[in-house]
Amino acid sequence: MRRHWYTAFGVCLLAVLLFFVMLQDTRWFLFLLVPLIVLWIYDVTQKDHTILRNFPVLGHIRFILEFVRPEIQQYFIANNTEERPFNRETRSIIYQRSKNVRDSVPFGTERDLKEVGYTWVLHSLAPKPISEVEPRLLVGGRDCKKPYLASRINISAMSFGSLSERAILALNLGAKIGNFYHNTGEGGISPYHLQGGDLVFQIGTGYFGCRDNDGLFDPNEFRREAQRDEVKMIEIKLSQGAKPSHGGILPAAKLTPEIAKARKVPMGHDVNSPAAHSAFSTPIGLLEFVQKLRELSGGKPVGFKLCLGKKQEFLSICKAMLETQILPDFITVDGAEGGTGAAPLEYTNHVGEPLEESLVFIHNSLVGINLRENIRIICSGKIATGFDIVEKIALGADMCNLARPMMMAMGCIQSKQCNANTCPTGITTQNKRLQRGLVVELKQYRIASYQKNTLKSFLEIIGAMGLSNPSDLSPDYVMRRVNDEVVKSLGELYQYVQPGQFLVDDNLHYNYKKYWDLASAEKF
Fold first, then answer.
1. Which of 110, 182, 370, 513 is 20 to 30 A away from residue 410, measured at CA?
2. What are phi and psi of 458, to 5 degrees?
3. Percent of the chain, pLDDT > 90?
């Protein structure tokens, strides 16, 4: 498609030149007319594009308009709050905080405070100073020998291959500067991940970085990677928000020697990511795999990531926890809003539970089986500001992972070319010419500054609410407008269960009981 955009641009440029030449010399006019005649002949004889067959030469103007439409929409038409997935107001605050420039706004909010869905927090007349608010949280349950003291804001999963080596370098160095963790994504640990930043080693269905020649999990390869000093936690990826329960293929043509080495796959072949894991197939099998990874890693925190789908399947995992007494150290909840790379349109738009509802359900499930205090909940999915993090922790999370905002902190302009290898900022492309524009020595500090300033904003809001620990947040601290006349707290909008209620209460609410009754530790 981009070939046609450039063709259209050339046609229009030629037409402009033709006009000026015609004013000067008729002979040059005839000379320049020949390419247009050739193009006219090509257009009327080709069969791919109806417009060009019916409107030769002139039809190329359509491609010019398509080419510049996103920029016109972004820079001249959309207001500060209406673009998606991230509006201009949000992008601007990310850029400002990454550059350590003024991030205040003048003359009041542009939001409609009477709009349905408008959300705010309840502040206190006895606020706490930011110095008294706890910024970190220990991850590691009763079976964990090497718990990890994590920041409340970290880098979400983005693989080497999906991101360029310079982007991975900047992310890891930024994590090192800011003392927060960097999730590797499922593409394995590359040399670019090993710059001193803390890592969460993610394992997907392809077991990249810890697989044998048949694509199955290899304990020895895993042990070698997981026992690195840089690796602080291990995450089993069950599904992701952008395309839950959907596998993928990295074509052999896109497989570079560096990517192949990080993923531990041979060159010259398509690289398959199955939709499901081969190391386990039941809830009990998942937890036994968690225990196995914890032992192989030397006792580091191990958890799993999922986008919530069938609710009885997550409750099946909960029943397996009760039966086996094997607990993950953390669970990462990815909302359907998530996504940094390529995904089918139908999956992006219509598959997976949104983050807010997922958080409430998973938090309630762990509370209901009396295990919430033993398991941390991490969440990801369109989180960018301090208020976003306050809201998610109030709903039931403990900390947040950010992906697209971290990309924006190092220069992403939301051009939406992540799946085309044409990212103009060099972040999601393997094109060396485009990567050249990403200066790691500068961008590492942009990432660290964005995380630091967003964390500061988050802690300031917590202090303004009169709290000294974000874990003391409850859904009753956050209000939302339901209609013109009604405002409710998140605690009123969502049902929250009592500790152990799933185990003793025969009158459990139907929204949970119907799934609890269907759940089985023996099968998903």
1. 110
2. -60, -45
3. 63
